[in-house]
Amino acid sequence: MRRALLALQVLATPVMAETWPALVLQSEHPVEGMRGGNLSGLAVCQGEMWAVSDRDDDQIYRLDTRYPEWLAEAVSLHLPQPPKTGLPWGVRMMGKAISPLRGGDLDFEGITCDAAGNRYVVSESHAGVVLIAPQGNASWLKIDAGLVRQARASGMLLHFNALFEGIAINPQGNQIWLAAERERRGLLTLHKKQSVWACEDSCVIMSEAGPQQPPPQLKAKSQAKDFADLAVFEGKLFTLERMAYRVCRRTPATGHVERCWSFANDALTAARRYASAYGNAEALSVDAQGAWIGVDNGNHVRADGEARPVVYRFAAPPGGWGARS
């Protein structure tokens, strides 16, 4: 009886926000010129900053970062029809139905690049990945159908608009990580096998569900745990966790959390807050000096009147990203 009462007490206890060391904001950069707005992915490729919007199917963006307000320069894409990846008919049809309202069918949600300068863009609505060579020609990666099959067997990719939300690749360009957004969220990986990207033993690294309490500044109810983007730096996997307003360092092989850092203090000041109960951070890029975090503000205007997408620059934690404290 005592054990049962304790269990009930635990279930009745509200989910509390976790406390993590805070990242310090160094600068912020409104982005001008994204046709569809909705900045949803960032990557630094051979010294250039690139971005994608989940409203644009036919272009990605090179960001001119020479001035405090950045300018997005469109780079056209010419893509063949998306391949079949194993998503069920119902999920695919929901994507098609919403695309006229969203402004695009492909729903680009992340961008990454390898050391050779190849860029990789993940399409949420098709659970596919676009390869953009340095010369600009674009094609769809050939991905083993086992990826989607294993993800769905683990409880991921079951709901429309809750599919792949982030992507990262190792510098060698032979291993990709993908983030399943929510309900359930998870991490998956693919290895390049000649011309096909396939699972080795398993594509699924981790899968989890449950509530996430937003930072107290939002005064919002708990939401489903989520991933918004991924980055690889110095052999570690970094996750952008939108509802928690944090960046976490994880073990690439297992997804185990090694360390997390909050960016809520500076991102949720009164002037930078949006009239939304949800997190807005969608894009992540990590380097030795810090992290770039991009905000997909949708149709929301910040309290200070800023209506454009914004990219924040946070300093690396004391001791660097590999520090234990």
TrEMBL record:
SUPFAM superfamilies: NHL repeat (SSF101898). Keywords: Signal. It holds the Pfam family Phytase-like. Residues 37-184 form the Phytase-like domain. This is DNA topoisomerase IV. It comes from the Bacteria. It comes from Pseudomonas lundensis. Residues 1-17 form the signal peptide.
